[in-house]
Design brief:
This protein has helices at 23-30, 33-37, 49-60, 108-123, 138-146; strands spanning 8-10, 13-17, 67-72, 75-84, 92-99, 128-134, 150-161, 164-173. With 184 residues, the protein is of the alpha+beta class. The chain contains 5 helices and 8 strands. The longest helix is centred in the middle third of the chain and has 16 residues, at 108-123. Strands 1-2-3-4-5-6-8-7 form an 8-stranded mixed sheet, with helices on both faces. Helix 1 crosses helix 3.
């Protein structure tokens, strides 16, 4: 994949920059307790239009932009984003994503994670993309595995969500050359 600009058209969806006009639909689809249960607490619940407007406003002034809409038929149905590493981890990025209830189980999340991982690795000359998954979210673990990520560790009792202390799985993706060795 070349380091193209967005949008990126995939089977069943498009990944594109957020638009100010997405706020109402973002609030509708993101106001789902199941989504909230699997994300960091910075993701509010209930998710209101004001939350969507604040999020989109923050994203639109970022340079580089780090969060994108997952769009199906012109409507945002989820999000994918990156948090770039700093200091000695500056050659890495964490990926995060979520998808609205009506669009899960269709391969969309896997396609998005696979494509955006390749995109961010090439565009920003990174060596690794990683993700944390709460052990209570095996569906997300399967998305990562189907996208080529490897479970590297179980981080025991490493988070608290909804009053419950949980383990997390650490997943990593390191691009490999034709010989199977990591590309440096």
């Amino acid at each position: 994949m070349t380091a193209s600009t967005l949008p990126i058209r995939l089977r069943g969806c498009t990944v594109r920059p957020w638009r100010a006009t997405d706020a109402t639909e973002l609030a509708r689809v993101a106001n789902d307790r199941d989504i909230w249960l699997n994300l960091r607490d910075v993701f509010p619940h209930p998710y209101r239009t004001e939350d969507a407007e604040r999020f989109i406003g923050m994203i639109l002034v970022q340079d580089p932009m780090t969060s994108y809409a997952i769009d199906v038929d012109g409507v945002p149905v989820g999000s994918v984003g990156f948090r770039f590493g700093t200091d000695v981890e500056r050659v890495t990025a964490e990926i995060g994503y979520w998808l609205g209830a009506g669009h899960r189980g269709k391969g969309i999340a896997t396609d998005v994670v696979r494509s955006m991982t390749g995109w961010v690795l090439e565009r920003y000359a990174l060596t690794r993309v990683w993700a944390h998954v709460f052990v209570t979210n095996p569906d997300s673990a399967r998305v990562l595995e189907r996208a080529g990520f490897v479970r590297e560790a179980t981080m025991r009792r490493s988070v608290i969500k909804n009053g419950q202390v949980l383990d997390q799985w650490l997943y990593g993706f390191v691009p490999e050359g034709p010989d199977g060795d990591p590309i440096r």
